[in-house]
Amino acid sequence: MSDTDTTPEGAEQAAPAKPVNPDLRWYVVHAYSGMEKAVERNIRERINRAGMQDMFGEILVPTEEVVEIKNGQKRTSERRFYPGYVLVQMVMNDDTWHLVKHTNKVTGFVGGAKNRPAPISEEEVGKILGQMEEGVEKPRHKVEFVVGEYVRVKDGPFTDFNGTVEEVNYEKNKVRVSVTIFGRATPVELEFSQVEKT
């Protein structure tokens, strides 16, 4: 090592960070409903084939996790916030517009002029990303009960009784309902699957 070499050892081993294009903006693309993931995949494939990776950033299908009970089993599934829409971070020019617009199962861009769509604001993007993050950290239940809500028991020894929700326990998937038996309010603990909203 010479005196003029000032490069610290190991510096060349660090991979350079991918430069972020300052012209990237978020656009909303309208897709066939139920085909959002396919559109995301198709756009990525077309970007790679065209060699336009530096003109595009992220491509998102905004989703959240939803917990539902089926046959006594707890299942987590994904639910789309905006069915039929995909968010694309891109530099808008004629080439990128044509690439996205002519992707299979894309019907067009949302907002702006016909051939010059308007980007959505950073504030709107922040809200959507926040919703997605929250949906992963705290999955939402498909059926949500509210204390004081009137429900009907549809299964078990209290079938066809009506009552008022007193307590909801999402961890155990149980709800405590006050039903009237022989003229007296009686609290009964039931599974989510045993009650329905009236």
TrEMBL record:
GO terms for biological process: DNA-templated transcription elongation; DNA-templated transcription termination; regulation of DNA-templated transcription elongation; transcription antitermination. It comes from Ramlibacter humi. The lineage of its organism: Bacteria, Pseudomonadati, Pseudomonadota, Betaproteobacteria, Burkholderiales. The keyword Transcription regulation applies. Participates in transcription elongation, termination and antitermination. SUPFAM superfamilies: N-utilization substance G protein NusG, N-terminal domain, Translation proteins SH3-like domain. Belongs to the NusG family. The keyword Metal-binding does not apply. This is Transcription termination/antitermination protein NusG. Residues 144-171 form the KOW domain. GO terms for cellular component: cytosol.
